[in-house]
Amino acid sequence: MTDVPPATTRPADDAAYRGALTDVLGVLAHGSLMASLRMAADADLAPTLGLKTAMAQLAFAEFKAFSDLTNHMRGEGIDPQQAMAPFVVPFAAFHERTRPSDWLEALVKAYVGEGVAKDFYRELAGFVDERTMVAMTAALDESDEAEFIVPVVRAALVTDPRTVGRLSLWGRRLMGEALSQAQAVAVERDALANLLVGGEADLTQVGDMFARLRERHQERMNRLGLSS
Amino acid sequence: MTDVPPATTRPADDAAYRGALTDVLGVLAHGSLMASLRMAADADLAPTLGLKTAMAQLAFAEFKAFSDLTNHMRGEGIDPQQAMAPFVVPFAAFHERTRPSDWLEALVKAYVGEGVAKDFYRELAGFVDERTMVAMTAALDESDEAEFIVPVVRAALVTDPRTVGRLSLWGRRLMGEALSQAQAVAVERDALANLLVGGEADLTQVGDMFARLRERHQERMNRLGLSS
């Protein structure tokens, strides 16, 4: 663990920044918790013990990120439960609307859904102080736990090429629901939205960010053998 | 980690013992994996974020035990997937028949179901070599992650005394289903049954063991404010 200097550009006593920071960590923590629990539940759909274990490992890595983040928050005097509360409804809505109907949908959701969420959180990490950024980056650590998904989905597409269309649509739906919930959050959470728009970024930069998110989403879909 | 001397009374080259050992570790590992995934899925039923987090913590403590156990197995040259395979059906049957219909049932299942399972595994640990026993004991480490359940259930019983009867019945059903699956496993897995019956234990001792399991089950039910 390297020693991180305290924030300089954005002092912790700036109330607006403090509110935004609480939102950033709250959305990330709650997103990780919910993703972890949904992936664990979706492991039920796995056809083999090996795949069930791999999905459980992915869920557990996500829970570890949640756990580390909430520890960081407590250290910063931020109550995790309070910080997560505003995001309970949008995440519940997202997961309710994207309940996988089979194992392949669960795999694509884990790969694509988590991918876009993590890309978004990485973008947010560009707007926070250095100490927070380090904690966020650790939670978002690019691990290869999800990589087991790529060959499994690709093999399924070879076995049954008709699934390409169905899963491509599914990937688009996941992205659409994610963006729709992100927008609902932005409308509700002024501090969070101002961090992006009012801070160093302006509306053009926000547009650029969404373009980057879509681009990386396309790359992930292509890696799975799907079109976006 | 203390240095454990290699097994003396039960040499690792004894094929029958090796078979039994594989079964003991397989049943424990698969039990932990399934319990972890079911508890994570049941966290969906939690009425508050604090309770959801507590249940998730319990689930992932269980996954940690699974993960440590499978590492131990690999170190001993035992393939975890193969060792777990014979227990997939009985555990799936148990969890299918004991799907909680609400949050209180999920809590009682987590507390009582895990309790009796861990008691049983602790009994099994009395029949294995010392190195295995140490690994099993670590996985069964009496943690207090489940203790949050006691006040929550007790508070619910005060609020609605009619739930006492319903949850007491539920606890009995959990115990009944667990024993029924344990019996099915004993019939199928000769090596495992012989470890208990043919080894240092005889049938009387097995009877004593089940009496102890029932007794501790009663204690746990009482702690929750339920009758067994």
TrEMBL record, chains A, B:
Superkingdom in the source lineage: Bacteria
Q: What positions does the domain Ferritin-like occupy?
A: 16-199
Instruction: Tell me the organism.
Output: Phycicoccus elongatus Lp2
What name has this protein been given in UniProt?
Ferritin-like domain-containing protein
Q: Name one Pfam family in it.
A: MiaE_2
